[in-house]
Amino acid sequence: MDLKPGSRLKSSVCNTELIVVKAPSGNMDITCGGAPMADPAEAEQNGEVAADAAEGTALGKRYVNENESLEVLCTKPGDGSLALGGTPLGLKEAKPLPASD
Amino acid sequence: MNLMMLLEMASSGFGDRTAVGSHGRGLTYEQLFQRSGAAAAHFREAGIDRVSMVDVSSEALPIALFGSAWAGVPFVPLNYRLTVPELRLLASEVAPSVTVCNDDALAAIEDLDGVRAVVRPDFLTQWAEGSTPDSDWNVDPDEIAILLYTSGTTGAPKAAVLRHKHLVSYIIGSVEFMGAAEDEATLVSVPPYHVAGMAAILSAVYAGRRIVQLPNFDAAAWVNLVRAEGVTHAMVVPTMLARIVDHLEDVGGGLPSLRALSYGGGKMPAPVIARALDELPETNFVNAYGLTETSSTVAVLGPEEHREAHRSDDPAVRARLGSAGQPLPAIEVDIRDEEGNPVPNGTSGEIWVRGEQVSGEYLGRNSRVTTDGWFPTNDGGSLDTDGYLYVEGRIDDIIVRGGENISPGEIEDVLLSHQSIADAAAIGVPDEQWGEAVAAVVVPAKGQTVDIAELQEFVKAQMRSSRTPDRIEVRDELPYNETGKLLRRVLRDDLAGSR
Q1: Are B199 and A101 a contacting pair at CB < 8 A?
Q2: What's the complex ipTM?
Q3: Strands B260-263 and B50-54
Q4: Count of CB contacts below 8 A, A vs B?
Q5: What's the pLDDT at B153?
Q6: Is the Cα dihedral B392, B394, B395, B399 positive or negative?
Q7: pTM
Q8: Cβ atoms within 10 Å, residue B134
């Protein structure tokens, strides 16, 4: 599916929900727990988290692909872990910024 | 994207932490979520287009802000210091609205068409109680979240548009979710109608940092509240910091709980920040540069850079204290000439910014953002070779003397470096020969008198003679608005009248 900043995604096999922070154009095959993710309005819960994609997602953490062209934020945590085109997404290292307001 | 997403995450991640008020007695994130939902249900029922507020900071502020986001209508904090005719004009423009207000504002606006005025106690007991709406908030990122009216008092009112996508991008890009330790508290003393007042709430909620509010700024009250509430973080405008430092120098005792103090919203006089660094040796200082149209901060000078510059004898390193630091990771900064072409490092020009948080838009007017996303800020400035941004002030304030562009900031910096001067402003005044001449208004330092001829020589020795003020006036203080902006227009009128 095509993703753009602000798009929301829901897992079909766990409670994970995401918001897209940035994404390249084109078709993005993003999965959670081994199953395709979908718009929350259309997502149906069926199936189970695949054993090889069960590390889970954490609330408020950002996940990126290798070249960081895709970045998503976890708004609801779940048991499945995220992948793009079969390659697991990594946790984005948060560079701490000083509080400014 | 919706501001409510930030509060929902906070409520599910650390719902029993205190969000607003005194530790253990204020509202928790879960309560803030519930009350915002209750307010949203009432807002929807009222069938209004905006939720407005004419009041000082209180717990009603975050409830009304998030409640309007949930209800799907813009939140419009108005200046509670406006005159009655000014307030009536804006309140009419904002209608149909629910307006949460103080008693004075109620009397001023309750007869207006489409304005449903509610005093704060009634809002808290009647509107912020009850059940949450049946349906969730709208997630369209292009919906308007906040409208902020500019402080200008001439011409038609102008409202900066901040959409959910701008503010959410700003928070996600600059604040770590639950990044605050449980004992942290931030003191908000800027008013609700200032972009920093809005950004402070959103940042604190997402970080999980308790909000302590000071309704009307006063240096002694601010210091007392930091001590009483164990405040760890705060943001102030330069005029506030000057008064806080004066007060601390009088009463002593420092502020041991205060880990981080950020400042912005106007030019910080170098002597004030130097005194503050001496008075608060354990505190981390952060200079934040931003505009209403950029959803608050776009560049920061961090704590290490402050201390390094303060310790250094190297003028180039020391000069960094006057810098706005480096752009946030999600922000690009360019310096461009009048034609919009980039200029080399070290050259002054207009500051342009680009990023998801940049709105650059006013209600009912064409956006100033270019098709490729760049926003000309109308602030002058330069970047050095290490990427540090130096802000020179509004381009409209630049003095044009005989075709030469002179930035008031550089003259002010020189004036402020003189031991007899506590505060200084340089402005252009009409001049038959040069078009504009340079004039300065200065405030003497405690116990000092100003020798005008000597001061002119002092400036001349450091700058070209064309930049030396032809005229210097001495005043007890300079005119600032309550959010720390120097009112140059008032000075121009003052000098024109006293000729």
Answers
A1: yes
A2: 0.92
A3: unpaired
A4: 81
A5: 43
A6: negative
A7: 0.91
A8: 7
Asked if the peptide bond before residue A24 counts as cis, ω within 30 degrees of 0, the response is no
Helical axes B408-416 vs B452-462, angle rounded to 10°: 120
Burial B261-299 (b: 16+ CB within 10 A, else e): bbbbbbbbbbbbbebbbebbeebbbbbbbbbbbbbbbbb
Please answer whether residues B389 and B326 qualify as being in contact, where contact means their C-beta atoms are separated by less than 8 angstroms. Answer: yes
Residue B152 is predicted with a pLDDT of 53
Query: Nearest CA to CA, how far is A19 from chain B (Å)?
Result: 8
Is B243 in CB contact (< 8 Å) with chain A? no
Question: For residue B260, which phi and psi values (nearest 5 degrees)?
Answer: -140, 130
Q: Are A61 and A78 in contact (CB under 8 A)?
A: no
**Distance of residue A4 Cα from the nearest chain B Cα, in angstroms:** 11
Q: Tell me the mean pLDDT per 10 residues along chain B, length 499.
A: 96 96 94 98 97 97 98 96 91 97 96 97 97 91 94 68 97 94 96 96 98 96 97 95 94 96 88 92 96 96 94 89 94 95 95 97 91 95 94 88 85 92 93 90 94 95 89 93 83 80
Longest dimension (CA), chain B: 72
Chain A residues touching B174 at Cβ < 8 A: 97, 100
Residue B286, chain A, CB below 8 Å: the answer is yes
